[in-house]
Write a structure and sequence with these properties.
191 residues; 7 helices; 13% strand
């Protein structure tokens, strides 16, 4: 399973390419119908629709568990939506819950620069450098012995993504220069 930060509609195909294998993504049901090209991508990736209005999206979680149980990867955007800045919203626990329930490792995938290639307010793709780091897998088993296993695993996922995004920011600061009035904010958070 992959847990991926989410700045742009480009993130699913970028993550799929970086992981070098077919990945089935969880995606908000409300993005179907926005644009024919987006619908084609959602269909290509056999995305699993998740309703934002359902308190417990059981149908989506069951489909994801069946996919994981069959040994196939799932991609989850734990922020729950596209964001303008990392840390803008707390991570939802769905990725951690699926990893604990299916007993599969979580691979953090940090994407840097996609928000400039296709910002949240545009459906056109522009030129911008994009970098991706596929982090080391996080084993859920050590978290199972702790109270609040889903929450502790979720914190490990957040820390890994935060660490990789800080490294990308340090290595590629020009990916932000001149492309946005507001640079990516990476607040200091406990590692």
């Amino acid at each position: 399973m992959a847990a991926i930060n989410h700045f742009s509609l480009l993130d699913p195909p970028i993550a799929g390419l970086a992981l070098r294998r077919p990945v089935r993504f969880l995606a908000l049901d409300e993005i179907w119908g926005i644009h024919p090209a987006l619908d084609a991508v959602l269909t290509l990736f056999d995305s699993i629709p998740v309703s934002r209005t359902d308190r417990r999206p059981l149908r989506a979680l069951r489909a994801a568990l069946r996919h994981l149980d069959a040994g196939r990867p799932i991609g989850v955007f734990p922020e729950g939506r596209r964001v303008a800045a990392w840390g803008e919203v707390p991570l939802k626990t769905g990725a951690a819950w699926l990893a604990v329930r299916a007993s599969v490792p979580v691979v953090p995938v940090a994407i840097w620069g996609s928000r400039h290639a296709m910002p949240m307010d545009r459906l056109r793709i522009g030129r911008a450098p994009i970098r991706v780091v596929v982090g080391l897998p996080i084993d859920p088993k050590p978290h199972l012995e702790q109270p609040g296993s889903v929450e502790t695993l979720n914190e490990s996922i957040r820390s890994a993504l935060h660490r990789e995004l800080r490294l990308l920011e340090a290595a590629y600061p020009s990916a932000n220069e001149g492309l946005s009035r507001r640079p990516l904010e990476l607040p200091d958070q406990p590692e």
